[in-house]
Write a structure and sequence with these properties.
By secondary structure, this protein is of the alpha+beta class. It contains 14 helices and 16 strands. The strands form 3 sheets. The chain has a 9-stranded mixed sheet. It has a 4-stranded mixed sheet with strand order 14-13-15-16, with helices on one face. A 3-stranded antiparallel sheet has the order 2-4-3. The protein starts with 10 loop residues before the first helix and ends with a helix. The C terminus is likely disordered.
Length: 390
Amino acid sequence: MTGIDSSKMSIAERARLRLHELYRRYGYSRYKMDKFEEYEFYLRYKDFLETESIIAFSDANGRLMALKPDLTLSMVKNFRYTAGCVQKQFYSENVYRSSKANRMHREIMQTGLECMGDLDVYQLAEVTLIAAMSLATVSDEYVLQVSHMGLVRDLMDSVSDEDVRKDLIRCLGEKNRHEMKAICEEQGIGRNVIEALETLISTYGYFDEIIGGLEAMPLGEEGRNALEELRSIFAVIDESGLSEKVKIDFSIVNDMTYYSGILFQGFVNGVPQSVLSGGRYDKLVERMGRQGGAVGFAVYLDYLDLLELNESKNDVDVVLIYNQEDEPAAVYRAASAIREGGEEILIERNIPSRMTFGKVVQMVNGVPRELSGEEIAALTKTDHETAQRR
């Protein structure tokens, strides 16, 4: 049996295989899970989910079940803490979500990883590096954008009103300097904090270029620790040679109820939305009654379908045309010879309409012969006229 020719696969299929190989090289094992979970479980953590509705149904025992809208929750639920160790697992599964735009249900293919347990800075740096390398398996034209909720939370420590905090987080994510400043002034937030938040909104670039501005901010212990953590993470990124692909962007923010540290989003040229997202979510682990910390990310393989539009790929390499008079064994021999050459082949009596192909081969007196462009056009026209008469 011949090996798999990855050039015949879609971009998403190739990426999936390469990501599995990458994660295994870094010591991650495959995690398999069921498609269903009890509905009440997701309802309990609904504010963590990226969907407004959960697809539910009753099973044969009358239990209300749900199609999985998220994979991280199930992995944390089944995580068992071991002091001094981390658990490294990757997954490749479908999730089921409702679109916020039109509320239609979607099946989304995800591949990603989770690192849970006694996390240290090295593990955080390694996951960040693997996130960048994951994007590199998809395209040479990519960027990984990095943020840190510890630094954001430190600057908002003086804001006691939770709703105000959420509004400021939203403004930071939208890079809305005007509204953020208005909220701060209305709430009587100090000028030094306002200026620091304005610095975060305007910060974008390579770590070495922006670290000076971040160090000048009025940070407490948590903020300074976050900066030191970023410094160590980017030292590893520099060692890897990928520093030109990783940038700081504090508009990447998330719910402080769950996310406690580094955050990242990944983009590839040709796809208008992020194809990778993740971060550290110790607070979710704590809320679910587990010890330790957790960091991970997901790659949204379905989004890579948009890249297929930029690839010129035929539906099939070869169409083999035969007649009723041709011996099946002769057709099989001809097709086998073509397949052994590494080409995809479709065997038909006529050329299918609305299909792209590389070439057409026709059985003539039991012998395969490649047709010219003019012969293909004439054959296609004849087939079309025959179909009309029918």
